Amino acid sequence: MNFSTLFRLGENLNLDRKTLVFLRWLAITGQFLAITLVYFYLKLDFLFLIAYLILFLGLLTNLYLQFRIKSIFIKDLNASIFLIYDLIQLAALLYLTGGISNPFSILMIIPAIVSSTFLSMGTTIILGILTIILLFALSIFHYPLPGIHENSDTFPKLYLTGYVISIIIGLVFLSYFGIRFSGESKRRTDAINKVQQVLAKEYELESLGGQAAAAAHSLGTPLATINVVASELKKDLGTHNEYKKDLELLISQTKRCGEILKQISKKKIKDDEFFSKNTIENIISEIIDSFKETSSKKLILNIDEDEKKFEYQRSPELIYGLRNFIGNAVKFAKTTVEVKIKSNNKNLEVSINDDGPGFPDDIKEILGEPYIKSKSTQINSNAGTGLGTFLGKTLLERKSANLYFSKDSKLGGAKVNIVWKQKDLKANA
Questions:
Q1: pLDDT at 32
Q2: Antiparallel, parallel or unpaired: β 73-75 and 277-279
Q3: Over the stretch 185-242, which tens digit does the pLDDT of each residue have?
Q4: Is the whole-model pTM more than 0.85?
Q5: Domain chopping of the chain, boundaries
Q6: Which of 157, 266, 365, 375 is surrounded by the most beta carbons within 10 Å?
């Protein structure tokens, strides 16, 4: 278990000021109504003036929070001070009204739960410990519950002890749940933001590539014209002309520009459209070729003989997603990566296989989730947190793909099956 991830250790966590102000106004209003109802309507005798004074102090602190603190978010330390005050204030009210025998004592767990959702683990622990101390103190020191005589056996000590323990159990459980829920929600939000960043970057790169290719295509004709004119001038002016060297330089530089443009645009651009349709075979071939230039490992592309060659719209989601999983296979493979393409009128399937260590057993069930890390010794400790797999999976799923992770029976390593329905691919084209 990764406690730094689970408990959000080291994160700069803040609480929205408006949220805290609203929660405190809600608590103050509820406390005011309860005190007023019990004393004036139910006619139960207790130290209501002191209770109102305690409530008034809470009101002043919330007015200060609402109008004097201007920041949108309250830092962990400042938020913890307000929550500790609220906990002590509630304990003071309970002290005047029966201690833990007061049914409202269950509300003592709220500050710790708020902290577990929005603040750090340290703050939550402090609030939890303080809550437990106050609960035990209130079980011993308190004024009698209004309407019940001090010597009454209505609440046996065993019952009160059990009640305190049950509140503590509820406190621990709900705080832990709040920590888990908040942590997972934050991690998923961060991961989704990463997806958006990657997608924006891919679109930008594709756009730049399109612009470069279109420029190369458009500049080809003017450069060819310059080359022809310069060559004709050289002929007409003869061999003894003083401009011969200048014309030769012009011709050579024009040819050089032409070669550079050929490198920029290796494929013919039709109507300056970069996001052209292409077969999945060609798209994957381009990706594999790019890895062959940087890796010594053997990359094999197998295409089913019965494959139906449909054309699909190139997209950053499709290209990045495929490149991500092929790149992972290259990274973890010992010697060989095999990519298989199989399609028919109904489905298109791309299978990416390698002879690496495969997927660790402890993360098989959560593959595709963000920020996961295996304990397996077969995997390099620096292998990452699963964010790349999450990004690739999310982007491909946006293009209607279904992904399946397993062990390759032939090569013995990891196997990623990416399956599309032909109708979905054509709909996205």
A1: 92
A2: unpaired
A3: 666 666 666 666 666 665 555 555 555 656 665 676 677 777 777 777 777 776 666 7
A4: no
A5: 3-155, 207-264, 277-428
A6: 375
Number of neighbours of residue 133 by Cβ within 10 angstroms: 11
How many other C-beta atoms are found inside a 10 Å radius of the C-beta of residue 398?
A: 15
Question: In terms of Cα–Cα distance, which of 275, 312, 304 is closest to 399?
Answer: 312
Instruction: Quote the CA–CA distance of 19 and 263 in Å, as a whole number.
Output: 57
* Residue 83 CB neighbour total at 10 angstroms: 26
Superfamily the domain 277-428 falls into: Histidine kinase-like ATPase, C-terminal domain (3.30.565.10)
Query: Of 133, 134, 131, 160, which Cα lies nearest the Cα of 145?
Result: 160
DSSP classification of residue 38: I
Sole residue written with tokens 């004024």: 143
Helices 76-96 & 17-36 angle (0-180, nearest 10): 10
pLDDT in tens, the chain (429 residues): 444 444 444 444 567 888 889 889 988 998 899 899 888 888 888 898 999 999 999 999 999 999 988 888 888 888 889 999 999 999 999 999 888 888 888 888 888 888 887 788 888 889 989 999 998 899 889 888 776 655 555 556 656 666 677 677 767 767 766 666 666 566 666 666 666 666 666 555 555 555 565 666 567 667 777 777 777 777 777 666 677 777 778 878 887 787 777 666 554 444 434 446 778 888 888 888 888 877 889 999 988 866 556 677 777 778 888 888 998 889 889 999 999 998 887 888 899 999 988 887 777 667 766 656 665 555 554 444 466 777 788 878 888 888 888 887 788 888 899 998 877 776 655
Q: Rounded to the nearest 10 degrees, what angle do helices 316-332 and 280-292 cross at?
A: 40
Q: Which two tokens stand for residue 209?
A: 């590539």
Pairing of strands 414-421, 402-407: antiparallel
Give the DSSP per-residue string, 84-135: HHHHHHHHHHHHHTTGGGSGGGGGGGHHHHHHHHHS-HHHHHHHHHHHHHHH
What's the CA gap between 143 and 45, in Å, rounded? 11
Whether residue 217 contacts residue 269, with contact meaning beta carbons closer than 8 Å, is answered with yes
Q: Which two tokens stand for residue 265?
A: 């645009």
Q: Produce one character per residue of 335-353: b if its CB has 16 or more CB atoms within 10 Å, e if not.
A: ebbbbbbbbeeeebbbbbb
Q: Residue 400 carries which side chain, given as an amino acid letter?
A: S
Answer whether 98's CB lies under 8 Å from 143's CB.
yes
Contact 317, 398 (CB under 8 A): yes
Structure tokens at 309: 């060659």
